[in-house]
Amino acid sequence: MNTSKEEFLSAFLDDESGEFERRRLLDELKKDDALGQTLSRYAFIGETMRANKGQPMGQGVSLLSRIQEELADEPVYAQDNVVPMPARANVTVTTSRVQAYRWFGMGMAATVAAVAVGGLLFFNQPVTSDASMAAALPASVPVSVAATTPTMVADADTRIQQVGRVDPQTRDILKQYVEKHVKYASTTVIAPSIRAASYAND
Amino acid sequence: MLTIKHTVSIAVLAGVLAWSTPSLANEAGDLLAKMRNAVHTLDYTGTLVYSQGNELSNYQISHTVENGAEKESVVRLAQGASASDADAESFSLAKFQQVQPQMEAVYALDLGGQELVANRSCQIIVARPRDKMRYLQRYCIEPETGMLLKYSLVDRSHRTVEQLMFTTLDITVPTQATIQLSPANPAMSAAMPPATDWIFTSLPAGFQQVQDLQQEGINGQPPIRQIILSDGMTSVSVFIAPPGAPSMLDSIGLSSGAMNIYATEVAQHQVTLVGEVPALTLQRISENLQYAR
Question: Distance between CA atoms of A88 and A80, rounded to whole angstroms?
Fold first, then answer.
């Protein structure tokens, strides 16, 4: 069934079709069950609409145009009133989950591969000392080669961010040191002024 | 024949690169020098965003030059804050020292692309550290005026630890920039000759002592020594408190954005290091500080 058959149906129901068209439509109705159901539906809709408006059947107005008019009179739904169909929502979630599992699997595989390759490279790499790295630097002043054990660095890093635990006296002293540093030692432009205002408010 | 062509092409390319790299670095250095001068000679008013670690704040800054003297005002635009205007003294070691020669040994200067900040076009310049003892510095400078529009410090984890950026800015070029960049700062008159009692057996590459100041003690306490070290782009203050001065914890490390603090004890003196450098740098400096008397 296509649009032209629907138009024939509409014209037939509105008593606007000619003899030739009517005969042809009847032939089609014998062969096409779907077209017959459409005819029944159109007829039912037409009856309902006419009953609501108190109009008798066959006023020379196209059924399709009346349907369009009725649709135009329907209240417009706001976007907020539209509720997504639960079935479709579930499908989306399921799909995203499947996708997530797929990515997780690929990520795991990549991680295992990276660890394996990284392990091989780590155990096969040549040993490079800090001193040789420092020597590679174009230093005008000798680089400090005093060994700082990783433990010390880790300890310092652990202590950092513990501002809240500093006692009030220490805090006052530190604040004055920071103020003096910002005031007399900052090398960058504008930033010192902003830093000073920032620390003054802290 | 094809091999000769390739060889010649590569040689020409290498020649062009070798010629252009120092040229770009020089251009970047020149623009940095222009910026250091411009922020002291220009009249400007604007608002800027300042981030320090995870904290974000707004400031209104105003800078004028009147009769050769700088006047600067910085007001924090906090929520519910009053409009009280706190005049801030204009200060910076940059005012007294231009880009130092040793800076080029520890930073690689790169000229980046153009960016639009506060509706003004600016040129990106990156000072890339050659070791892990300092932060990467990124500037965006308006080429015409030399005004700094954006500045950030980035650590080795590519984390921006401090950043400022103008959101609005009005610049007026004074008709007669008669400003004298003289050490009007009272602290500078208290500068002492280089310390001989306290010495650094070695320093991280590029750092050297640039100031030795005597600061007044806190609440009538004995004066505090402030030795300033700089690599030309950033600095570290080493505060030395005599025995008997108000004490802190034996050893402490604190961090706030780009700024780190490291306190320890050397020869019964409380030594506190403050600077916009990684904590490791402060530790290295303190380890090589010795009391010679």
Answer: 18
